[in-house]
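protien #1 (seq + structre)
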Amino acid sequence: MAEPNHAGMTRGVKLPVDDGETYAVSTPTERSAPEVVDRRIEEILQRHHLPPDPLDELPPPPTTFLSGVFRFPWYIQSLTPWLFCSFGLALSLLGVLLSFWLVDNGLTMAAYAMRFSICWVIVFSLSYLSGCFLAIIEGTANGYDEITDWPKGDWRDQFFSLGYPFGMLVLAALVGTAAHWLTLRQSIAVPVVVGVVVYPVLLLSAMESGSVLGFVSRPILRTCVDLWWGWLLVYTLSAAMFAAWLAWALYYFPYEGFFITGLSGPILVTILFIYARLLGRLAWWAQKASDDEDEDE
């Protein structure tokens, strides 16, 4: 075996002592190739089993539901996903509007020929938007201010993530419909309000349990009581944003339909990013409540 270039040199290994800068001196010893490989594997395994650094998960700022919420879509790390989601959603909305416009103008065959292309654009766009939506909630729930773990890889991986946001949306619509029938269908506002109220509870519960079937979670339900003011603030802010967009779109749509539809893409993505940020802060509180409950037990 070839001798090392600095065989005569010694190296210092710092002892794990608290007082002073004490060093022990050792001379390098020759090891066989299997020993070196085994030690290298052991070092890698030890690094992967190290306890998590507390600095990796920092708590949100004191103003939990305001700081870093409305500015979040304009973070440097958020701009690229925001642009992709905005372009995809705008293209999807324009494709749907174009289909209706072609049908209204007697060009039914042209609309029929475009149906597959429009459907694929919608699937791709909503899949990526769903992945970003869930990434924001999960990252914010873990205490991160900047989200870097954005969706990557095959689009089919993101397609299955639609089960959380859209599956819970369907379930919330069913709950709202049931409430509408129980109130003898007196007002159309009843299913809308009920659906809006139960949707974030169902979504966060499913994400907390790790399954779309676990749409009832004790930590999430506990925050509805302990953090009622936070839920009220989230409902108020999200309702105000969606209502403002809806009023603006309905007022100007008769004049500039295609322009308003295309511009609604980035506006809706911005609202959804902020909404996901708010839900992530609620999930952080739910996770904290769950940890406190485990410590009490």
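ok now protien #2
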Amino acid sequence: MINQIRMLRTISIIFLLFLSQQAYSQSIDFCDVFSVTRSATGFEHVDSLLQTEYLSNSDIANLYAIRAKVAKERGDDILSIRNDINKAVELMKDSPRFAYFRYDILWREEYDNKERDIELAKRIGFKEDKIGIGIVPTIHSGDGLLFGIEILLPGINSNPYTIQDENGIISSQPLSIAMGGLILGYSSSFEEVRISELRASFLKVFAPILIDITQFGVRWNMEGSRWFYRPELGIGHRGLSLSAGINLWLNGRSELDFNRFVSSLRYVNVF
């Protein structure tokens, strides 16, 4: 009789553990929660899940993060968005994952511990976009090699990254993005007969595809100068870009036998 009672007790415990695991496993399909919440008019689905038993702190934090992200997409009140994502971060303390979630949701806002969130997120692969003055060393072929520099006012540079922790990939950016507002450039050769040029363009994209359709400049040597319009097309990745352009001469001076075709190698640095 005692053995039968022990067996029934063991079966009951196993059954309760099975039900607990079922309730827990049903609560963590966050992709489904996110899609349902996005399509719903309110947050009833998330609110009901938050009342579910057997949720871990990680589950609760994920639900608050989902509610904050969807609220931001809908343009809801920033105070409620802050409240939800702050609850998620408080539950998970020094978690790089949730530090990144908060920065991703509130990056346009000023808030306490923003720099701390950035540093934590960098531990799992996050990279900040760089916006500032750009310095771009350049090498041009055509009429020999011309070495020079371009200044970007301002410059924007964003390199590829994958944000990933032990739970999997959180976010990624596979391509480089780089561009400049106003671009001023100077190049010169080191031949005995020196050739130099000045150029300027506006809204130039360096990566992932280099496109410049606003570039004008002047190329000269000791015999004279020629003004040009130079469209360029190329590719760029992780700061490095390779392009080809054609000089469309805007004045005469055919005796100045400058090369019509130009290929260029650049490396974008933004500070």
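Helices lie at 2-26, 30-39, 44-50, 57-74, 78-92, 96-106, 114-122.
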